[in-house]
Amino acid sequence: MLKLSKKTEYAFMAARYLALNNSGHCSTAKEIAENYDISRELVAKVLQNFARSDIAASFQGVKGGYVLKKNPEEVSLFDIILSVEDKHHLTNCLSEDNPDEKCSHEDGCKIRDPLIEIQKRIDNLFLETSLKQIL
Amino acid sequence: MLKLSKKTEYAFMAARYLALNNSGHCSTAKEIAENYDISRELVAKVLQNFARSDIAASFQGVKGGYVLKKNPEEVSLFDIILSVEDKHHLTNCLSEDNPDEKCSHEDGCKIRDPLIEIQKRIDNLFLETSLKQIL
DNA sequence: TTGATATAAGACTAATTTAATCTTATTTAT
DNA sequence: ATAAATAAGATTAAATTAGTCTTATATCAA
Asked: Which nucleotides in chain C lie less than 7 Å from some protein C-beta?
């Protein structure tokens, strides 16, 4: 596997849409969902996440919606993933709720450290790629 | 997410075990499973995959088991992942059974190309890391 | 002030994927 | 012959992910 979730895919798409339509105009979840033919509710959740993590500003009510809060070159794909995904770790024993040496296979499994290194380098790939680069 | 499957974790562990115990000695699935306290059947499947993809040689019958067929520095983590995992793609539209331009979001989603690039670079990280490096 | 259209957020259900187990067959050393 | 191993596929169970539904709140405009 090692697959991005649909939520992350939708997040990339929604962020891209916001970036391309940021001329003072407020984009709604409905608008984006219809544009890509995906679930309105899922897009809405993605956008709510964006608002929470300060990627986008939200406006409620009629004429409400979302606008990007940063320049596309200032938003990394990593920011977007983090905004939308709670777990983003290669293995369970690499996650923060499982700090330090804790591995379900006791000290039998010694693959943790090299994987931490690879994890960092993968994160960096997404960190180095900005939203601007996918427009 | 973007998580390795347990199968892949087990594969790394099993490969590591084989590499550390390759002094003419045949390692069995049972032995490895007990050593790491994981399911015997799952380890068996991993080892069968290793045999099919020529990472290990298998010997049947009593006194049977598996031995690494290559030097640890000649086996990459990517080889191991490929051996054990059928899908190893960042997104569904990146998989081979979905060639070329086919994306469920028609031409609406334009994130495919940059993701192909990131996919390649992730693959490279695993390709550049050899089994020897996790011993 | 009411109705229409948004976001906000959480509960719930459905679908898919992954993990684990079970079963049967075959091989081979003793 | 028997015990211990691989081989391979079927089946079940568990976990995760995707998608939907519901209720509440905000805001614009007639």
From this structure: 3-10, 17-23, 26-30
A72-99 pLDDT, tens digit per residue, is: 999 999 999 999 997 666 666 555 455 4
Among A56, A90, A104, which residue's Cα sits nearest to residue B125? A90
Is there a contact between B5 and A5 if contact means CB atoms under 8 Å apart? Answer: no
pTM of the predicted structure, to 2 decimals = 0.90
Residue A135's nearest CA partner among B111, B58, B39, B38 is: B111
Sign of CA dihedral A97, A99, A105, A106: negative
What span, in angstroms and rounded, lies between the C-alpha atoms of A71 and B117? 23
Domains of chain B and any CATH numbers? 6-134 (1.10.10.10)
Q: How far is CA A133 from the centre of its chain?
A: 15
As given in the structure block, the two tokens for residue B53 are 């993809």
Closest CB to A4 among B12, B37, B91: B91
The shortest CB-CB distance from A38 to any of B91, B105, B110 is to B105
End-to-end CA distance of chain A: 26
